[in-house]
Write a structure and sequence with these properties.
Blueprint lengths: L4 E6 L2 E6 L10 H15 L6 E6 L10 H11 L4 H23 L5 E5 L2 E3 L1 H6 L4 E5 L3 E3 L13 H9 L1 H10 L3 E2 H6 L5 E3 L4 H13 L3 H15 L3 H13 L5 H18 L3
Parallel strand pairs: 2-3, 3-4, 4-6, 5-7, 6-9
Antiparallel strand pairs: 1-2, 7-8
Helix pairs in contact: 1-3, 3-10, 5-6
Length: 269
């Protein structure tokens, strides 16, 4: 397991920590693999009843680390268009599997969201069962602004969470919105002052852990089987739509601009 994704188990609660604060916990290939490893570690701990997913230094996740996009571009050098598409689909499927591992954890998972929840970070939060946010958090799903499709389940999980119309508005516009709007549209279940978030997450984790674990886990399987039972097929469809734009010139310019914009927005915060 990478140092950039850590697991801490205390009693019946397992915390998965995104730990790259110097990059606002933005995701690179190593972190994607680390998320999958962390989920396997949690599932292997028999006493765990609840998971918490959060980020280091008071920030959840600012999305894709632009360095990861550069790595993919390098891996496509010299390949034919058909070979490039095949490599991209393989790449996306592997990363999607790490996010799906969060969704399919045997225990309920609470996302503790602060400061930034953008792009792939928002898509990761959607894999959690319950989302609690701090006041002042900025949300967005800006992929189309970058010449991309929300390809980590965003086109599939967001409509099932906030409704098709609202999901289309957020995806097509790529606009940012605050925690109050996230609460209003049902993206998060509660919003708290930043200084209270971790305590509130702990309270909810304890409340869930106090109930019969087999019943809680069976209820999770029953709910997810209805809403997400065919997720693999839906993600395959999303990948098919996302692969083409990943080869475009728009993507290269968009990623560089997004990285600069994010650094400017959060500098000194």
């Amino acid at each position: 397991m990478t140092d950039n994704v850590q697991v801490e188990i205390k009693g019946d609660v397992a915390t998965i920590l995104l730990n790259k604060p110097e990059r606002l916990n933005a995701l690179d290939n190593e972190m994607w693999h680390g998320i999958g490893d962390a989920c396997r570690a949690v599932n292997a701990a028999p006493d765990v009843r609840v998971g918490v997913l959060t980020g280091a230094s008071g920030c959840f996740c600012a999305g894709l680390d632009v360095k990861a996009g550069s790595t993919l571009s390098a891996a496509l050098d010299g390949l034919s268009p058909a070979q490039s598409l095949a490599r991209i689909r393989e790449h996306l499927a592997g990363h999607q599997a790490s996010f799906s591992a969060v969704e399919s954890l045997r225990v309920p998972v609470i996302a503790a969201i602060q400061r930034a929840c953008m792009g792939a970070g928002l898509e990761l939060a959607l894999c959690c069962d319950v989302r609690l946010a701090a006041e002042g958090t900025l949300f967005s799903i800006p992929e189309v602004q970058l010449g991309l499709v929300p390809d980590m389940g965003g086109t599939q999980r967001l409509p099932r969470t906030v409704g098709v119309g609202k999901a289309k508005e957020l995806i097509y516009s790529a606009r940012r919105f605050d925690a109050a709007e996230a609460l209003r549209i049902g993206l998060v279940q509660h919003v708290y002052p930043a200084g209270e978030l971790q305590a509130r997450v702990g309270e909810l984790a304890a409340e869930i852990a106090a109930n019969a674990p087999l019943a809680v886990q069976a209820a999770k399987r029953a709910i997810d089987g209805t809403y997400y039972g065919d997720m693999r097929a839906w993600l395959d469809w999303e990948t098919a739509q996302a692969a083409g734009p990943l080869l475009s010139e728009d993507r290269k310019a968009g990623l560089a601009a997004a990285a600069a914009r994010t650094r400017a927005d959060f500098k000194g915060k």
